[in-house]
Amino acid sequence: MARCSLAGLLESPSPGPHVSDLAPFWRDVLSDLNRQPMAATIDPLDLRSTDFARCHAVRLSSVDDYRLFAYFSAPDGSGPHPAILHASGYASVVQVPSYEERRTYASLAMCARGQRLSDRPYAAAFPGLLTDRIEDPGRSPLRGIVADNIRAVEFLSGQSEVDPDRIVVVGSDMALFATALAPGIRAAVVADPLLVNLGTLAHTVHDYPHEEINDYLRAFPDREETVRASLEIFDPSRLSDRIAARVLLSCGPPGSYFDRGRAETLARRIPRAEIYERTGRGYLDRIAIERWIAEAIAA
Question: What 8-state DSSP symbol labels residue 13?
Fold first, then answer.
């Protein structure tokens, strides 16, 4: 069973893209994370437990010695179980995974820095997080948030209830980052990534959170070149050739920001990408994605 090991990744490159191929920015992030002890604590969370799965409150440390919170649930009975990591999204509150999911999978719902329950000392604003110190990628919260999600993969793969060879990451941009930068991910479901090509596309979209970039550049027009350079660093598609996992790109109907056309453009950069265009019927879309996940971890 292959557990996620940043130390092994840093010291012994495996076939294919490895750490030495990374831009110095991301090499430094991985090195900083590797030096930071996880210091995980796991406490029963009876209020969120059921008669078929035990839920726990997890605390762990990421870069800058930042303490994070996550919900960890595992089904009762013999394991190890396949697992789903809910990478952090662009919202304040993180929900406990669904009852249906927790019947079958070990689950980890990550609260990255700035989100509720991981908001000390930094409480992110929504909108606002996207442009917080965006002119300096080394100080942007996005740097730490990427590291937080990689740490979540490390934690999940090390739990006795989890089969580390059958981990699926679901989410948006942070699911792409985790799949590209953390070893051992089996599959990923990525819906409506915000950061992909954002520096180029922001001026064409006037809905939030995209409009945060336009607002910022109207306020600080002299920083445009610096901001676009930062957004290039935080574009997960620039790491797409590192992704060995199967990836399902979930896109919206025509007229959506992330429609089939943009999904196809991103899919061409990911070696094993597939596309699912949502119908707008929540139940049907959920069933289709659940079936894809089940097939991906069984293959």
Answer: P
Owning domain of residue 291: 6-298
Q: DSSP assignment, residue 237?
A: G
Angle between helices 141-157 and 24-35 (to 10 degrees): 50
List pLDDT tens digits, range 270-290.
999 999 999 999 999 999 999
pLDDT in tens, 217-261: 999 999 999 999 999 999 999 999 999 999 999 999 999 999 999
Taking a C-beta distance cutoff of 8 angstroms, is the pair 143, 119 a contact?
A: no
* Residues 110 and 127: beta-carbon distance below 8 Å: no
| Amino acid letter, 213 | I
CATH number at residue 268: 3.40.50.1820
In order of 1, 76, 295, the CA distances from 104 in angstroms are 20, 9, 14
> CB–CB of 217/224 below 8 Å?
yes
Number of domains in the chain: 1
